[in-house]
Write a structure and sequence with these properties.
The structure is a homodimer of 239-residue chains.
Chain A: H1 8-28, H2 35-42, H3 46-53, H4 56-80, H5 85-101, H6 109-117, H7 122-148, H8 158-179, H9 183-197
Helix pairs in contact in A: 1-2, 1-4, 3-4, 4-7, 5-9, 6-7, 7-8, 8-9
The structure holds a DNA duplex (30 and 30 nucleotides).
Chain lengths: 239, 239
DNA sequence: GCAAGATTGGACTTGACAGTCCAACGAGTG
DNA sequence: CACTCGTTGGACTGTCAAGTCCAATCTTGC
């Protein structure tokens, strides 16, 4: 079970299935996508699914890997050619334009999968986390180039700026897809870029008060949870 | 069907079901949570579910409404008392602390639901969008107070800063839950706060080049999609 | 206390889903 | 050409899920 295609034909079949499954999962979510749906979308047969993926879980893993590779390939490529502010601006503009073209549907495939599957399956979470890591690396690479070109100050914390940028992407995409308004992403990205331009003043001397950064667990007010601790049977890990 | 509880007992039952369902849906996702799961978790009977919620979709809607109200109540309350940088810092610190306590599991209930359900059901999407809107209003209220206290310059674009802040929250939470590292949220929030402190220099005169902001659809490179347009059967709206 | 209506229990129906199985088919190799 | 093994079709099974139904029980207003 779960064998790697040995023939050209087999590889084509496997890929066809993964692509169709990726689309269905993106639209409906993993557990709302049945194998029969995938069969109907591809014209494949049950044996093919079980031959190439072992079981449904294997198919979902393949979908996750596929989406990570796809998004990452495109982002790495787009970011690799960023070496000044104009390039960065174009990169941002491209993302916004894509979201607009989709009517602000869907959002980031990785982000959507991460939100849904991170707490469901540890292996999937790891794959998705690695994808975000690779995405961060691509962003950091671009920032490094900007710094080398004298556009970002030497003292800037590139790691923090990278996280801030990726965070703006994901947050902006989520707000955009929820409100069906690509403008939210535009604003989030503008904010991130402004911060990059300002050199990432995370430690601003202006009038900052000493942070209670390590004063945890005493003054902490309840801001969420409410049902975090309750009697729960916890039966079935996934459907 | 789908009746509002008329008695105290009925209200208690309904609430008990919604809370348990909210937790299960938060852990496994809506379509991976069966009514039998909810029944097992609450000790309720099938008739009760159908009596109070009409069908599964109604239950999910109730869960969404409940989570929106819960998160929003807490956030609105926490943000209402923010009137200087220290307050804001504490607010951020509180969120990070909560995420840490949860081992960076779960993330924001609204964000998770939005990622999963926005493209599934228009009504749910609207509810979630309204929740984000209300959250934005709470943030804007805090920023307004900061501005009134002279901590944010009068010229600052509070709407943009609000979106940037909420975007950082959501993006940071997503990255945190995926990497199981609350530090991601901490960095994202620090970035947002730094931007607020710097007065939200979205339009920085430094050396900005004219933006190709409306040059869409010509130079646009393919940065995602790949299977956005394909033959798809599209059978069943939800499971 | 006593209807009237709200609430509850749980068996039952119907369909869909994941997963199994085996018999064919076909492509590559000697 | 023949053999092998990767590949494919599709019927079949057992389980589980959503939704229905009706009778029993409890609450509340009078």
């Amino acid at each position: 079970m779960s064998s790697i295609p040995a023939t050209k034909q087999g590889r084509a079949t496997r890929e066809r299935i993964v692509r169709a499954a990726a689309e269905l999962v993106g639209e409906r979510g993993a557990s709302a996508t049945s194998l029969d749906d995938v069969i109907a979308a591809t014209g494949a047969s049950k044996s093919q699914l079980y031959h190439y993926f072992g079981d449904k879980h294997g198919l979902v893993q393949a979908v996750v890997d596929y989406q990570c590779a796809t998004v990452l390939g495109l982002q790495a490529h787009a970011l690799a050619s960023v070496s000044d502010w104009d390039d960065l601006e174009r990169w941002a503009q491209t993302m916004v334009a894509i979201v607009e073209d989709q009517g602000a549907h869907g959002g980031c495939p990785i982000g959507t999968l991460a939100a849904a599957l991170s707490d469901t399956d540890e292996r999937l979470r790891t794959s998705l986390s690695e994808a975000f890591q690779a995405w961060s690396d691509a962003i950091r690479g671009a920032l490094l180039r900007l710094r080398d070109n004298g556009l970002i100050s030497t003292g800037a914390d590139l790691d923090a700026l990278t996280t801030i940028t990726l965070s703006a992407i994901q947050g902006g995409l989520l707000l955009s897809k929820t409100s069906r308004d690509a403008g939210q992403l535009r604003i989030a990205l503008d904010g991130a870029i402004a911060q990059l331009r300002s050199g990432g003043t995370v430690a601003d001397p202006t009038d900052r008060a000493p942070r209670p950064r390590a004063a945890r667990s005493s003054t902490r007010a309840p801001v969420r949870s409410a049902e975090t601790r309750a009697a729960r049977p916890r039966k079935k890990p996934r459907r």
